[in-house]
Amino acid sequence: MTLGHESVPPYRCGYRPGNESVLSETDVTEPRKLTDMRQGKIVSGEQRPFDVVVVGSFFPEYQMAGNSTTGLVYLLHSLIPTSRVRVLAQSGARRPNFMDRNRVEVISSWKYDNPVSVIAMLFRALRLGRTADAILINTYVTAFGRHKVSNGVGLISIAAVSKLVRCPIVVYLHNLSVTQQIHELGYDASPTVRFVARMIEGLLVKTGKVLVPLDSQSEAIRKSFGVNVPSLLIPSLECVGREVRLVEPRQGGVATGRARRRILLFGAWGPQKDLAGSLAQLSPITTEREDTTLTVAGGVNEHFPSYREVWNGLKSKYSGPRIVFVGPVPEERVAALVAEHDLLVLPYNATGGYSGGLSVAGFTNTPVVAYDLPQLREHASLIGATVTFVSPEGESLHNAVVSVLESSGSCMKTFPTVEHLELTRRKFEELKRLLFGQTLGIRGGNQ
User: Fold this and answer.
1) Which of 128, 253, 277, 405 has its CA 20 to 30 A from that of 190?
2) Rounded (10°) angle between helices 374-383 and 215-225
3) Which domains does the chain have, with CATH numbers?
4) Mind listing the pLDDT tens digit of every residue in the chain (447 residues)?
């Protein structure tokens, strides 16, 4: 499948597309042009690889921004065929089998909730930066563990590395405390903790190396710190780092216009999502409509281990022949899971930024019904996802889901569309210009 040139055939639900690459290496910037980005790339008449260091959670971790880091590395080694990527990842990380072992090296170099290991890892990044062409750090404010000290040390260390490293560096920061509603997300942060977090975040954004996904986050940073931080959302990072065999065949296949309708609740469950309220509205649909089933997928958010008791209670209350709780889903199965359903429901009470679940739905052309939140609307408009926004009050969710199910009589899906892949590539090109020292409005960018 080549970006922007070949049409993509529609895939019937339950059938398996070919083994072609999501983003073809044949339709990328020519190596000769890439050598113009920085000097000294030609050695003995041959181009040496671009050496990129990536820092962040990585495969098989899908929380803590692990799935988006995996997607970024996939894009780096797919769309820059002359690149070599070294990933400084958490303990237990490994290279997925769809990445070239000769060009992607995963180095397990730090542990969650271990500040000493985080400091050591970031100083290792500083040493690698002496010879690397670029460093990309993909993270967010609570990505180094559950404890405040771990995350504070992580952010301070990133700020130090950003100031000291000599090669171009981009810190792709998915959220900050000033860009989200802390208490609505379920975090217990005292005024002192919020003050310290704000000080650390101000130090980091003023290094001039930070990039955020959404315009609204950039505006919040400008109002809080007086700093203009650019925004860039790369669609479907949570998908492009997987093999394109998105829809696994089910026994007997599935015909277009099938009798059974499938609803999906998927996410990392915690107080930031209204699992109890959405189940109360969705479960009656499975009894009113004999053709409808509901799948509840995803594990408990690692930041809220006590939510396990709530999740177990809801599982005990609602499990039945037409409501199935499947728990955590392997990262390589997430896109297939979403694609196999007719509808994804996203019952966010609050968002910390853009939604990984919405990204997967946009990639697989799966309709979404979601609680109406500004950041979800912003995200949906950026990726062209089909979303019905509803109020969490009354029976709004119930009625919207029934309406979507009744209006979607076919399971024929075309994904990923050429337009979606082209948008992903175009946004990645902007990130590539940043990484290799070209300007995109970042104050004080390394050249």
Assistant:
1) 277
2) 130
3) 31-240+419-435 (3.40.50.2000), 261-415 (3.40.50.2000)
4) 333 333 333 333 332 333 333 333 333 333 333 333 333 343 334 456 788 999 999 988 877 788 889 989 988 888 887 789 999 999 999 998 888 889 999 999 999 889 999 999 988 998 999 889 899 999 988 888 878 888 888 888 898 888 888 888 999 998 887 766 655 555 566 677 677 778 888 888 888 789 999 999 999 999 989 999 999 998 877 776 554 433 333 332 333 345 578 999 998 898 889 999 999 999 999 998 888 999 999 988 877 888 899 989 999 999 999 999 998 887 778 888 898 899 999 999 888 788 888 988 888 889 999 999 999 999 999 988 889 999 988 899 999 999 998 887 555 566 667 777 788 888 888 888 888 754 333 333 333
Residue ranges of alpha helices (H) inside 384-417 are: 396-407
The pair of structure tokens assigned to 401 is 């889901």
137 vs 234: CA distance, rounded Å: 15
- CB 67 within 8 Å of CB 356: yes
Residue count (the chain): 447
Tally of CA atoms within 13 A in the half-sphere of 273 that contains its CB: 24
Alpha-carbon gap, residue 88 to 65, rounded angstroms: 14
Which residue carries 């119930």 as its tokens? 398
Residue pair 29/5 in contact by the 8 Å Cβ criterion: no
Quote the crossing angle between the two packed helices 374-383 and 356-363, to the nearest 10°: 30
Q: Are 372 and 391 in contact (CB under 8 A)?
A: yes
Residue 55's beta-bridge partner residues?
88, 137
Could you give the CA distance from residue 257 to residue 237 in angstroms, rounded to a whole number?
A: 31
Closest by CA position to 422, among listed 70, 32, 79, 16: 79
Structure tokens at 353: 């930024």
pTM: 0.78
Q: How far apart (Å, rounded) are the C-alpha atoms in residues 28 and 40? A: 21
CA–CA dist 54, 89 (Å, integer) = 8
Amino acid code (one letter) for 233: L
Name the β-bridge partners of 170.
136
Q: Which long-range contacts (CB under 8 A, 24 or more apart) does 431-434 make?
A: 431/136, 431/170, 431/172, 431/211, 431/232, 431/234, 432/79, 432/80, 434/168, 434/170, 434/211
